[in-house]
Structures are given as C-alpha cells and as structure tokens.
C-alpha cells in the first residue's frame, strides 16, 4: 500500500518550477532555426542563447547581450545580407580532482543569436565592445536614410 506524504510548502515552489519550465521551453525554441517571420536565418543549432536588450536613440540602435563567463576571443559578431549574428561559446569547467558538482543549471556550449537590421543602419560603422560579461553592439543610424516625421492633414 502507498505511503502518504505530508505537503510541505517550504520545500516545493510552484513558481520556481514554472520558471524552470519556461526557461527549458525558451531554450528549446531558441534552437528552432526560424525567426518570427518564418524565415530561416541560421542553420546552426545552439546549445543555449544569451538574453539581449535592444534599445534605440536618435543616433543609434544598441544591442546588449549577456554572455557571462564567455571570453572575448570566443565571441564573433558578423553582418551579412542585413542580418547581424552574434556567435560564441561558453566552456564548461573541467572536472578537477576532489571537486564534485551537486547541481549544474547553467547552460554551456555554443550559442548564436541573429537579428534582421533596420534599413536605416549604417553597416560600415558598426562597433562592438565587451565589458563585464556584456557584449554591446552599436548600430549607428545612417544620416541619409533617416525617416522624417511629417504631420498629415486628414480631410
């Protein structure tokens, strides 16, 4: 006959489990080789995907990607046919004698993120910097392609 176990809310956190499920689902979707428009952007399958923030000022677009514990030499930023791609690899610690891991939740291996660039980006003037585990890509806007704001009269 089965045993009854008393529920202890201090050992089970349903929100944490939902968050973990969401993270697993996001990792699975990140491996899908299509973007939101159904276009194929990359054939490579990534082991994990860094989170990014994309912002815009009057002068540029800014992409900030979190790549903790990734060496600068292991990150590559390219632009081809209007698509910016960030690729790299986070290497897993090698097992050391006398050291045991009890839990490994962080993802390791290769990663890739691709973004279709807006038409007003000046491809030749892109800059990237790497500081404290954050990759910052500056996408300056073209002066000649800037769209003007115009008020249109409604009749």
Kindly give the count of domains: 1
* Uncertain residue ranges: 36-44
Shape, per Cα inertia axes: extended
| Main β-sheet description | 4 strands, antiparallel
Task: Kindly name the structural category.
Answer: mainly beta
- The CATH class designation is Mainly Beta
Number of strands: 7
Average pLDDT number: 79
β-strand percent reads 25-35%
Set out the fold topology.
Blueprint: H1 14-30, E1 52-56, E2 60-66, E3 75-80, E4 83-90, E5 109-116, E6 127-131, E7 134-140
Antiparallel strand pairs: 1-2, 2-7, 3-4, 4-5, 6-7
How would you explain this protein's 3D organization?
- The protein is mainly β and 155 residues long.
- The chain has a single domain (14-93, 107-140), classed as Immunoglobulin-like, CATH 2.60.40.
- The chain has one helix at residues 14-30; strands spanning 52-56, 60-66, 75-80, 83-90, 109-116, 127-131, 134-140.
- It has a four-stranded antiparallel β-sheet, with no helix packed on it. Strands 3-4-5 form a three-stranded antiparallel β-sheet, with no helix packed on it.
- The radius of gyration is 22 Å and the shape is extended.
- Mean pLDDT is 79; it is low at 36-44.
In brief, what are we looking at here?
This protein has 155 residues and is mainly β. The protein has one helix and seven strands; from the N terminus they run αβββββββ.
């Amino acid at each position: 006959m089965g045993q009854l176990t008393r529920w202890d809310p201090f050992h089970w956190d349903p929100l944490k489990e939902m968050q973990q499920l969401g993270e697993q689902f996001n990792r699975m979707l990140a491996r899908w080789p299509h973007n939101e428009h159904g276009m194929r952007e990359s054939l490579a399958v990534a082991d994990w995907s860094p989170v990014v923030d994309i912002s815009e000022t009057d002068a540029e677009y800014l992409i900030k990607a979190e790549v903790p514990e990734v060496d600068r030499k292991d990150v590559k930023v390219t632009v081809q046919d209007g698509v910016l791609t960030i690729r790299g690899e986070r290497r897993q610690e090698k097992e050391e004698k006398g050291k045991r891991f009890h839990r490994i939740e962080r993802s390791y291996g290769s990663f890739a993120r691709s973004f279709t660039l807006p038409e007003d980006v000046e491809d030749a003037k892109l800059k990237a910097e790497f500081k404290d585990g954050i990759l910052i890509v500056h996408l300056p806007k073209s002066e000649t392609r800037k769209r003007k704001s115009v008020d249109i009269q409604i009749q």
